[in-house]
Each structure stands twice: as C-alpha cells, then as structure tokens.
Design a protein that fits this description.
Elements lengths: L2 H4 L1 H11 L3 H11 L5 E3 H11 L1 H8 L2 H7 L18 H13 L22 E3 L2
Antiparallel strand pairs: 1-2
Helix pairs in contact: 3-4, 4-5
C-alpha cells in the first residue's frame, strides 16, 4: 500500500516537493528516455549517464565502486559494477519515496537486503 493509494492529496504534495530535487528530476528524465519508460536499475543508470555523467555516478554508485570502474577519462564502465557497489539509498530509500509520491510504479525491489540485491531484477517504471 502506498501513500498514492491511501491519500492522493498527500501524495501530490510529496510529488511536488520531490520534483524540485535535481536528483529526482534526473532519475525521471533517465526513465523517460527508456523505451516504455521502464528499465532495470542498470539500464536506468546507463540512461541517466548518457544524459549527465557528472550527476549519475554519485546517485548510483558508492565512491569506491565508481573509482574502480571508471576508465582513464572518468567514464563509468557500467558492466563492471558489482551489486555491492550500488548506492543502497537510491534503490531502497529513494525508490520507496518515488513510489509513495506516485512518480514510479510499485514494481518491488531487486532484493530485500543489500546483500540479496539483484540489480537486473530491480525494475523501475514511470507511473
């Protein structure tokens, strides 16, 4: 059950607040550029990276992971990212906030814990 279902007015207020956040707008823009406005966490990361590489890495990766998989020019080699290097606050917390605001659909998480997280099973879809 999400806030969007329980209290559409409260959800609309949350949505307005969240859409003022540059990171949220970046995620929405990344999703909006994917076919069908949907994709897995790695697909969303690559989509956002194509739009704004400087903003994408801190949103999707821990700093150690970003340093490990960046090439000499600083571009992230997304296929080398390990699930443990993904930023849990994005795929656990922010995803829930966006769901409650009605910005993204309730597609579940890619795992109940960061250790069990499977990025390729973590589907993000604009609502």
């Amino acid at each position: 059950m999400t806030l969007a279902l329980v209290s559409p007015r409260a959800s609309a207020a949350l949505r307005l607040l969240l859409l003022h956040d540059p990171m949220v707008r970046h995620l929405v823009q990344g999703l909006g550029s994917l076919p069908g406005w949907t994709g897995t966490f790695p697909q969303l990361a690559r989509s956002c990276d194509a739009i704004d590489p400087a903003r994408t890495s801190p949103v999707f990766l821990l700093s150690d992971g970003a340093a490990r998989i960046a090439d000499r020019r600083g571009r992230i080699q997304w296929h080398l990212a390990r699930p443990s290097e993904r930023r849990t606050s994005t795929y656990m917390q922010w995803k829930r906030y966006l769901r409650h605001a009605g910005i993204i659909a309730n597609t579940g998480l890619g795992g109940a814990t960061s250790r069990a997280y499977r990025p390729d099973r973590d589907l993000w879809t604009l609502a």
